[in-house]
């Protein structure tokens, strides 16, 4: 088990985890977490003739439990991190499992679900279409990270993904968790900010007719209130805070970034950051 404080190479933990670890080590507001490296998947699930029937050996259960108790506070999110994800020419976002609001009682089940998602039909089809690894399932690292029960969440781009304008930061946001925005389920609020002028250039009020909220062990879709639908999800102070944060991440990585963020009780959390891809 590799905590964000110790994570280094992409080969070991995949691109998504490497980026999170770099942000965490650079003191960006990333929730704490650890990574189950790809080597574990290769030696366990991938080498088993029946991956779906594979069970955790006791030593692995103990190591995961120890890391869970040492590095994170529940609940957590369990998500994939593969070296082939988020390539410049193709994004595998949404192709593999992400399980939210996970407690220890369903942690091992969630990790296995994440691993086994590499064998799912849509992920395999996507691999084959992209010509990656001959359609073979890649070795997958798994991120176990503290879950943020967001009041507002969304996605920010450090350049306009439609026009390519390098000066414009585009932010999509909605009340509740970010899944409704990332999945395209909702029409979010859209904000455009200028880097050079330190200004809010435009605001477009989305209908925001639904949001993702917590359920007992997971999430569900709920209707937003009329007040939420008629109000912007982010205020000026938050927009300027996001502008500075996104510019800082772009400078650290050295390329335009696509960043998932969340606000909880007014505090900003960075949940993911990657290259703005050309492959959808």
SSE diagram, text form:
Elements lengths: L1 E2 L6 H4 L1 H11 L7 E4 L1 H6 L14 H14 L4 E6 L16 E5 L4 H10 L4 H10 L10 E6 L5 E6 L10 E8 L3 H4 L6 E6 L4 E6 L5 E6 L2 E6 L2 H5 L5 H18 L3 E8 L2 E9 L5
Antiparallel strand pairs: 1-2, 2-5, 3-4, 3-5, 6-7, 6-12, 7-8, 8-9, 10-11, 12-13
Overview of the molecule:
The chain is an alpha+beta fold. The protein has nine helices and 13 strands. It has helices at residues 10-13, 15-25, 38-43, 58-71, 107-116, 121-130, 179-182, 226-230, 236-253, and strands at 2-3, 33-36, 76-81, 98-102, 141-146, 152-157, 168-175, 189-194, 199-204, 210-215, 218-223, 257-264, 267-275. The strands form three sheets. It has a six-stranded antiparallel β-sheet with strand order 9-8-7-6-12-13. Strands 1-2-5-3-4 form a five-stranded antiparallel β-sheet. A hairpin with a 2-residue loop joins β10 and β11 (218-223). It is globular. Residues 85-94 and 122-135 have low confidence and may be disordered.
